[in-house]
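Entry 12.
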Amino acid sequence: MNQNIIVRAATAADAHYAETITNEMAESAKARGTGIAKRSPDYIKMKIEEGKAVIAVTPDDTWVGFCYIEAWELENYVANSGLIVSPGFRKSGVATQIKRKVFELSRKKYPNAKIFGLTTGLAVMKINSELGYEPVTYSELTTDEEFWKGCRSCVNFEILMSKGRKNCMCTAMLFDPVEDARKKAELAKTVVTPEGDLEHHRKREFAGNFKLFERWVQFKQFVLLKGWKKKEGDEGKKSSMLSFLFFW
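Predicted 3D structure (C-alpha cells):
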C-alpha cells in the first residue's frame, strides 16, 4: 500500500477532477466489457460540492481514486457508487481505503439507511463482505426508478431487462444496520457449561465463506452470459434448463 496516498472526504476544491474521473470511469467500463452507470462531469461536481464523495490524491495533488454517495427512497437506501482508481495506482490497496472511507461517510450521513451496491468485480465484493455487506436478491434493493435508470448506459442492460430486473451480471450486496446490530449481538455468546465454565460461541460470518461465494459468482456470470449469447444467436430457442433451475 502506498502510504503517501491521502484518502479523504472530497471538498468543493476537488471539483476540477470531475472530468478526469468520468473519463476514467468510461475507459474502465469499456476495458472490462461491463458497465457502470454513466455520469457527467457536472453530476460528479455536484456530489463533490454536496459533501457526498470520497477522493484519493497524492501529496502533490495527483488524482488517485474516487467514489460517491447516492440516496434513494427518502434516504432509506444509500449506494456507494462509481468506485474508480487511476490505472497507475491499482492493486495498491487504495480501493479498499476508499470503500472504507465512503462507507464511514455514508453511515455518518445516513445512520439508519440500508447501504447497497451492484458490482461485477470480485475485489469490490470482497471489500463489501469485510464491511458487513451480504449478497441479496435484487428484490431487496431500492425500487426507485431513478436508480434503475442509471443501468441504461450499462452494456448488460438488455440482460437485466430480459430477466425482469430480477438478475443480471452484477451481484447485489446489502448492509442493513438493524440486521448488522442483531448479528453482532448474536455473534459472540457466552454460555455456562454443566461444569460451571464459561464458553464463547462464535457463528461463522459471511466473509469467512467468501471463496465459495466467489465460485458461485463466476458460475452465475458464465451461465447468464452464455444464455444471453445463445438467445442472440437463436431467439426461437428456450433458455437452458440449467439457467432456469439456477436462477428461478
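Annotation: The mean pLDDT is 83. The chain has one domain: 6-234.
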